[in-house]
Write a structure and sequence with these properties.
With 312 residues, this protein is of the alpha+beta class. 24% of the residues lie in helices and 22% in strands.
Amino acid sequence: MSAGPARTVRAGRRTVQVHRPDKVLFPGGGDAKEYTKGDLVDYHRAVAPFMLPHLRGRPLMLERHPDGIDGPRFMQKNTPEHYPEWIRRVELPKEGGTVCHTVCDDTATLLYLTDQASVTVHRWLSRTGPPGPPADRPDRLVFDLDPAGDDFEAVREAARLLGELLDALGLPSALMTTGSRGLHVIVPLDGREGFDEVRAFARDVADTLAADRPDRLTTAARKKDRGGRLYLDVQRNGYAQTAVAPYTVRALPGAPVATPISWDQLDDPELHARRWTVADAVEQARTRPWDGLSTRGRALGPARRRLEALRG
């Protein structure tokens, strides 16, 4: 069934063809609004100035839903050969070979990926060389606060505790709703250490926090071992692992968005993991909740020594 003629969208020096812009990717129902591919293109055009700084230079994994969120999905790491030559690729090693990842450096690429029904963008925590550190040295550390159910108060409490600990370690941090159930707490790094060292540090921080609140927090990777406690997930801090990108859309009813917030907003009683959608996430982006974060990457050495002192 046709979903309307193609639409041509201008993005900088390029034009992007949007095929079947009226195709429904997010069916409506209940409290959830319906959104089409054209709606997602409009959202990404508007959010691009805020989203692209968090994507540039980073290898991506794309979560594609060609038949909408109720249809099959597939996770795309390798860049298809038919993608335009102007879209940047980077070939990176994996066990037994290489992967040719897509990199999104401009609005045109972002809109092309949207036309390909890439609903959710998952990014590496490292960049691929100049002007950032090489791909094997992350410049972001992520704690994923994953509640046992839809208990956002547990997420809010864990975020406060983690923020206080990171402050004590001398590390700046930022918050982001995941658009699903929890929050991400993100620490900017100077990109001098490898993934193994960064993940080991993140695990030590999470273990310290969980040991202090063993009834409410856990680092147990297996769900059956969590006992209804909030999971402090640090597994995204590994080579070739990804985290949802700031301002990306989640494949859930109503098109919720993973949205950066300020620490002050953590106290907002209206806050929850799906607080913003494609309808209002740009408005939140304009408040620039992470202002200054990118220039504040820190070395982990001093924080590691402070953590060791705290742990005795």
